[in-house]
Write a structure and sequence with these properties.
Layout: H1 2-26, H2 33-37, H3 46-102, E1 110-116, H4 122-132, E2 140-145, E3 160-164, H5 169-177, E4 181-183, H6 197-202, E5 208-215, E6 221-229, H7 237-257
Antiparallel strand pairs: 1-2, 1-6, 2-3, 4-5, 5-6
C-alpha cells in the first residue's frame, strides 16, 4: 500500500512541478525569502531566479512530453514489429501448405498486394461512372504495396497495372474476371498481358505468377493478392481446384482480418 501511495505522490509531483515553477517564474510574488532559505540563490536577484524557474518548468514539461512520446512510439513500434513477425509466420505456414499441395519444395513464392491507386478525384469519377453507366469509363490502376514480411525486397517498387478499361497483366485479368488466375510461365504466356517495357522489366526475374481478388460485400474488387516465383511451377487440374480454394480463403483472411493492409 505504501508503495502505491509513493507512486501516486510521484505522479502528482511530476505533474504539478512544471506548472508550479512556470507560475512562480511568471508571477509578481516576492520571492526574496528564497535567498535566505536557499544559500545558492543568495547572490542572485529574484528576477533572475524567476527566469530560472520559468525555464526549468518549461524544460521539465518538454522532457515529460518527450518521454511520453518516446514510450508511446516504442510501444507502437514494438506492436508493429510483433504484427509483422506474426504476418510473416502466417505467410510461411501458408506457403508451406501451397508447396505441399503442389508437390514442390523451396518455391520461393512471394506474396504482394496490389491496391487501387488513390486520387483526389476518385469518388467524383466513381459517381460519374455510376451516373452514366458504361458510357463513361475512367482509367483505373492498381499499384503494388510491398511489405518485407510478405516478400523479398526487389525491384518491384512503383509497379502498377491498369485494370480498366485496358486489362494489363495478370492483375488486370484477375480484376476483370473477379477470379483466381495464374500463369505457369510468364516468359511464354497463354494470354496477351499488354504490358509495357517498364512492367516487363520489373517482372524480368519472375516466371510463375498467380493472382486472387479480395472482394467486399458489394462484390467490388478492393485489392489483388499476387503470388510469384522465379521458378516455373506446373499446376494440374486437381491442384488447380485445391489451389484456388486455398488462395481464396487466404485472400478473405486478409480482407477481413487485416483490412488496413489493403488500403
Amino acid at each position: 500500500m505504501k508503495k502505491k501511495y509513493r507512486v501516486i505522490l510521484r505522479i502528482i509531483l511530476w505533474s504539478v512541478l512544471p506548472s508550479l515553477l512556470t507560475f512562480l517564474g511568471k508571477s509578481h510574488i516576492d520571492l526574496s525569502f528564497i535567498q535566505k532559505v536557499v544559500p545558492v540563490f543568495s547572490d542572485i536577484t529574484p528576477t533572475v531566479f524567476k527566469d530560472y524557474f520559468l525555464l526549468t518548468g518549461m524544460l521539465i514539461s518538454l522532457i515529460l512530453v518527450d518521454m511520453q512520446f518516446a514510450i508511446s512510439e516504442f510501444d507502437r513500434r514494438t506492436v508493429t514489429s510483433q504484427r509483422h513477425f506474426l504476418i510473416q509466420y502466417i505467410k510461411n505456414i501458408f506457403i508451406e501448405s501451397l508447396e505441399a499441395k503442389l508437390g514442390e519444395e523451396n518455391t520461393g513464392i512471394n506474396i504482394r498486394i496490389f491496391v487501387p491507386k488513390r486520387g483526389i478525384l476518385k469518388n467524383i469519377k466513381k459517381g460519374i461512372e455510376i451516373l452514366f453507366g458504361n458510357k463513361v469509363k475512367f482509367k483505373k490502376v492498381f499499384v503494388i504495396k510491398n511489405m518485407d514480411c510478405l516478400s523479398e525486397p526487389g525491384v518491384t517498387n512503383g509497379l502498377g497495372f491498369e485494370v480498366k478499361p485496358e486489362i494489363q497483366g495478370l492483375v488486370g485479368l484477375c480484376y476483370h474476371r473477379k477470379a483466381f488466375v495464374y500463369e505457369e510461365d510468364i516468359k511464354s504466356p497463354k494470354e496477351n498481358f499488354k504490358m509495357n517495357e517498364f512492367q516487363r522489366d520489373k517482372l524480368a526475374n519472375i516466371r510463375f505468377w498467380m493472382c486472387v481478388p479480395v472482394v467486399n460485400k458489394k462484390n467490388e474488387v478492393i485489392a489483388i493478392i499476387s503470388f510469384d516465383s522465379k521458378n516455373k511451377i506446373k499446376i494440374s487440374k486437381l491442384e488447380h481446384d485445391e489451389l484456388s480454394r486455398a488462395v481464396r480463403n487466404f485472400s478473405q483472411f486478409f480482407g477481413e482480418g487485416l483490412p488496413d493492409l489493403l488500403k
